[in-house]
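Hello,

Our lab assistant flagged a job as stuck in the queue for most of the afternoon. It eventually completed. Since we weren't sure the result was trustworthy after the delay, we are filing this so someone can double-check. Below is the sequence as submitted and the structure that was eventually returned. Let us know if re-running is recommended.
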Amino acid sequence: MSISAIDEVPLNKFHRKLTWACAGGPFLDGYLLSIIGVALIGMSNELNLSIGEESLIGAAALVGIFVGGLFGGIATDKLGREAMYTIDLMILVVVSVLSVFATDAWQLVVLRFILGVAVGADYPIATSLLAEWVPNRHRGRLLGILILAWYVGAAAAYVVGYVLAEIGGAGAWRWMLASGALLSAVILLMRIGTPESPLWLVNKGRTVDAQKSIKRALGRTVPIDDLLAAAAAERAVERYRLRDLFQGIYLRRTLFCGLFYMCQITPMFALYTFGPAILGSFGLGEGNASNLGSALISSVFVLGCIPALRLVDRVGRRPVIVWSFALMAIPLAVLGGGDSLPVAVVVACFCTYALLSGGPTVLEWTYPNELFPTSIRATAGGVATSISRIGAAAGTFLLPISLSRLGIGTTMLIGAGITLVGWLVSFAWAEETRGRTLAETSAVPADSRHPAEADEKRGADVRESDLERS
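-- returned structure --
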């Protein structure tokens, strides 16, 4: 099902404002999840943290994202995109303020977990809302901008962390964690007043509300008969539920989205969370010197997304993700040489990995929103996020242990192996969705349906055609 008034309209002021507001969440997510890597240095000294406690604090937010992504996506499909759009940011404001007063490791673990729940919920909320409002020919690029905002936020975290560490003294880590409150408040104000997704409203049978939403956002009056026809088409199609993500072709798509996402972010999150420690293991200095190096690599991650934003809509999703994963494994394998490598080689490898990762990065939120229907779109995005965070949380928890017991070389080779798994998954299961409507990309191919389901779908098509003729 699609609404022509949305797919055919040129990009305008509303689309730009919505993109910025939606991108504010990922920007904040990248900032909050990365600032902990800088804060951990001062935090560990002041609170006398053990390696295990550092690992728990680093991984707590990722475990929270697992919970928030799963249940946030379900709530978004049931309650609406607009209803969930601001609640998560309110939570982030409160948690960021409370972090200033933490005096023990367990308090930080709890607060980082709650922060992760809010962050995880925002992923399916913001991405599904934007995907359902933008024309299909611009969808890949605009959804990619959201993940680009994540990297901008992460780079900003290292820059802010560097500055605060220079001027803030021993307790600067508290202000690093508190800085997210101001950013959350600004983005919250940007999001207030955003109209509900017409596709979600039509899916719920609220055609009049969908008409009002389109009029308010795009200044276009859509005939109610067109929306009634869209609603009838929605009712004619089976209403999917959470369990359907784990059956038939949707199981394959769920595994694909979750696994490639996991293989992309497991090495990347470890690098962001413990970037200074990793660079220090390669002999690139300690303290603020390694923080500055992490900020440089974070900036290269941003640069890598820029060409990928154009390629996914021009070349296609499948070739971008397959070739990117294949090439990303090479610099990580070279880093397997360990601390004997020249500093220039280490920096070049990390920067190369960061540049090449732009391909799968900009598709992390594009594929889940394109491969699943409206009734489970946000749920699918949340499940993909949750699957990805299993590996990310495990990797973040185990990385400091791996550095101390296996060494930096073996740790990097493990990252290369994870990346190759991402290539295998993408080569086997990545679909091409470029230039197609959400109704087309999320449909079940005729040759993969059970015969009874195929007959039901043909009957639905006939009923929709009859309705259009009448």
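-- support follow-up --
The delay was a queue issue, not a problem with the job. The result is valid. The chain has one domain: 4-469. Residues 204 and 431 are 28 Å apart (CA to CA).
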